[in-house]
Design goal:
The structure is a homodimer.
Chain A lengths: L19 H21 L5 H8 L3 H7 L3 H8 L3 H14 L4 H16 L5 H8 L8 H20 L9 H17 L4 H15 L7
Helix pairs in contact in A: 1-2, 1-4, 5-6, 5-8, 6-8, 6-9, 6-10, 7-9, 8-9, 9-10
Chain A binds a DNA duplex through helix 1, helix 2 and helix 3.
DNA sequence: ACCTGAACACCGTTCAAGT
DNA sequence: ACCTGAACACCGTTCAAGT
């Protein structure tokens, strides 16, 4: 939620500058991909994306050799939003339980960017060769931020590892996505996870 | 594990008898599907399956109008194994924690029958129109058996619902599948779930 | 009643030709 | 340096013709 420092939405990516027409095509492809993935999910037709962007299929391949490269591009400002939410969670003046409830809800929401996104992110978590591996790392760092803070506060059980928590919540996000549940239906599952990592003293 | 009462492996399905050649093709298709799904996962080529079975593509469609009908057929004796494991878990003379550890490991193993199976089962859980919905219900009943037993033993926290537990463990199975983790790597996640549903008194 | 295989549609991917 | 679009390969799905 909190409107943290974020570089201005548009361009400014750390890639070498493109020719004007190439940049225009790049942007149109990303916009078209955002549309198609929103409608059809992560397996939406690449042909359709090229068509909507008004370019030939070869142009799509030149800019994005694989489908995941395209997904990665369309998540450019996503990372910042995730990080901002994790910072907001840590800085909030609430109980450990409430902090986890908010953060996990954020995590699930971010991972269900579009249909199939949660599954892709889950699979990429352990695959450094994936184009979206970096995005997963960022997600991991954001989760680390919250979990580490709670460990330092002695709110969590001994032995709780951030990585395991991330996997587990990713599993919840994937289920929410695949079974087309809405956000509220994730809460009971997340509460079990929270009870599973919170120290007994903090229990209801 | 326990070799519970199971009808003899082969035919004897409750469907109307097929003509001899049709039955032979049916069996060859199921066998070929088992192979291909084992190698390529749940999205393996149907063409390839027909080819390996030595039949035309039309024959595959006659017997199995959708991919999920084929998956359902190949899980015919799967249900019994799942049920048997849940009975064995309940009858085992072990602690609640150990019972859950065994049962959840069984559940994950059964759901990762082949690549993509866990995701399919998770999606079908809330979709009565799915050909494999019945399989999910059976899975649910097996899980109910264990969870209900533990509730009656007062081993679980108040408010724990079998359905939520099933979804959560399905999430773990899906992650295990997608990130290609092996069985042992699921244990830390499952332990969190167990801590999340076990009453405090039973904690390590 | 069941099977075959040609035919069609759709999609991903490549690449020669163009600017 | 980048784009186009034809061409190819592969796959799912249908259906007329056969037995």
């Amino acid at each position: 939620m909190a409107p943290v420092t974020s570089t201005t939405e548009a361009d400014a990516a750390p890639v070498k500058p493109l020719r004007a027409d190439a940049q225009r095509n790049y942007d149109k492809l990303v916009a078209a991909a955002r549309e198609v993935f929103a409608e059809r999910g992560a397996e939406g037709s690449l042909d359709e994306i090229a068509k909507r962007a008004g370019v030939g299929p070869g142009t799509l391949y030149r800019h994005f050799p694989t489908r995941d490269d395209l997904i990665d591009a369309l998540m450019r400002d996503w990372t910042e939003r995730v990080a901002a939410d994790s910072v907001a969670a840590v800085e909030a003046d609430v109980s450990a339980r409430e902090m986890l409830q908010r953060w996990f809800a954020d995590l699930v929401r971010h991972m269900t960017l579009h249909r199939g996104a949660a599954a892709k992110l889950s699979a990429a978590m352990d695959d450094p060769s994936s184009p979206i591996y970096r995005k997963c790392q960022m997600l991991g760092e954001a989760n680390d931020r919250v979990i580490t803070h709670l460990i330092e506060t002695h709110a969590l059980r001994d032995g709780v590892e951030s990585r395991q928590v991330q996997r587990l919540v990713s599993g919840v996000a994937t289920i929410v996505d695949q079974a087309e549940l809405d956000a509220e239906q994730a809460q009971p599952m997340l509460n079990i996870v929270i009870d599973g990592i919170l120290r007994d003293s903090a229990t209801s």
